[in-house]
Amino acid sequence: MMFRIAPTMDSFLIEGGTRLCGEVQISGSKNAVLPIMAATLLTAETCVIRHVPDLSDVRFMCRILTSLGAQVEFDGSTLTVCAAKITGTGDYDLIRKMRGSICILGPLLARLRTASVSLPGGCVIGTRPIDLHLKGLRSLGTEIHVEGGYVKAHAPELNGAHVFLGGRAGPTVLGTANILMAAALADGITVLESAACEPEIIDLADFLNAMGARIQGAGSPTITITGVRELHGVEHEVIPDRIEAGTFAVAAAASGGQVTLRGARPDHLGAVLDKLQEAGARIDRRGGALTVSAGSFLRPVDITTMPYSGFPTDMQAQLMALMCLAPGTSIITERIFESRFMHASELMRLGADIGIEGPSAIVKGGKPLSGAEVMASDLRASAALVIAGIAASGKTQVHRVYHLDRGYERMEVKLEKLGARIQRVPGE
Predict the structure, then answer these.
(1) CATH number of the domain encompassing residue 410
(2) Of 42, 165, 323, 419, which is least packed with CB atoms within 10 Å of its CB?
(3) 313: domain range?
């Protein structure tokens, strides 16, 4: 089956000055579904995954699974994978283009005891080494060599072990996922210390447990995995995307509007909602809906990005766009990725006043923004520029929205339904 990847040079043309009002359905989580897709390699039986977002990253992962020999069908928001016969060597050109592809390493080792996977790529937001992934897999008994752009791994036996996954910027989310999947089919008990606590890790553990794995403690810094001999097929529904929900929440506040986020999980958005309220937005939780409304005026706030349940690095750029509109000074400190302020210079093209001092951005907000041509540097930077373009006067054109297509499902369509004047301009 062929999986089409969206055109790469499209842009968004935005006529600013509109209030976003209405309801938006939050899609399934990109950061949850990619490791879950990789986990289907752990069984020869069929797995059905529901609430899958139609994103370029998801389609890349479909192509990667297909290149490994799996049969993959993507119909609407339902993904069916049967990895009955697979190989341990992934497609070099596919895997190197996407950071999330590294999570196939753990399941390939667990299933085949051998794997050859190219070093991954992704957004240019700073160094993101995979040393903690390799450290954890070596602890389970894997021999690993990195040569010619490949990670070549061989494990005649996988044995349970104590693995410490703390790093300079905190726990590794994909590293936790990789070791979790490898340990599911290892002999004995594996204890992950300083494991990532993100909701996406809990969702992966729920998927694996439904397959027959024995995992306890997901969502806490200590996860215990008792290895089993084999796993079976399963049906699973992916959690909603907390970053998409947070992005639309910020967009509502920035535009002076009111947006109801259908399907969002407020319990996954604690730090983001807290900062929005501090900035003057109103938050209303009723049943399964979450409504975000702009307050009478915006206030500056300070944030520091941290591992979950702290303020997520994936929401830093969007909040910076909002702070450009808030009279006063905000300080935004980035503690996860050292090069994640590339959107600041593009926001300045729209009239923002931002200074960078080491790991912090000083935002002097309240000055009116006006439209301009801007260039997206990464996935979340794209979202920040779209938010700023909606709030600015005049026309803004955001180039290279292929970054945005990696993590937001038909964003321009959802925004248009909320009242934004936005259109996709096909690239040449």
Answers:
(1) 3.65.10.10
(2) 419
(3) 11-26+240-425
- Are both 72 and 192 inside the same structural domain? yes
Residues identified as active-site: 123
Q: What CA–CA distance (Å, rounded) separates 19 from 37?
A: 37
Residues 306, 158: one domain? no
Burial class (CB in 10 A: 0-12, 13-18, 19+), 260: buried
Average pLDDT over residues 32-48: 98
Say if residues 65 and 72 touch (Cβ distance below 8 Å): yes
| Window from 32-46, 281-295, 371-385, 392-406 with minimum mean pLDDT | 281-295
Nearest to 319 by CA among 402, 388, 229: 388
Tokens of 149: 């752009």
Any domain includes 1 = no
What are the residues whose beta carbons fall under 8 Å from the beta carbon of 253, sequence distance 6 or more?
276, 279, 280, 281, 292, 293, 294, 295, 298, 322
Question: Which is more confident, 221 or 340?
Answer: 221
Q: Is the pLDDT of residue 248 over 60?
A: yes
Contact 273, 249 (CB under 8 A): yes
Rounded CA separation 237/318 (Å): 27
Q: Residues 268, 207, 71, 100: what is their CA dihedral angle, to the nearest 10 degrees?
A: 40
Task: Report the range of poorest mean pLDDT among 93-107, 247-261, 315-329.
Answer: 93-107
Closest CA to 196 of 224, 210, 177: 177
Q: For residues 145-173, give the mean pLDDT.
A: 91
Instruction: Please check whether residues 257 and 244 belong to one and the same domain.
Output: yes
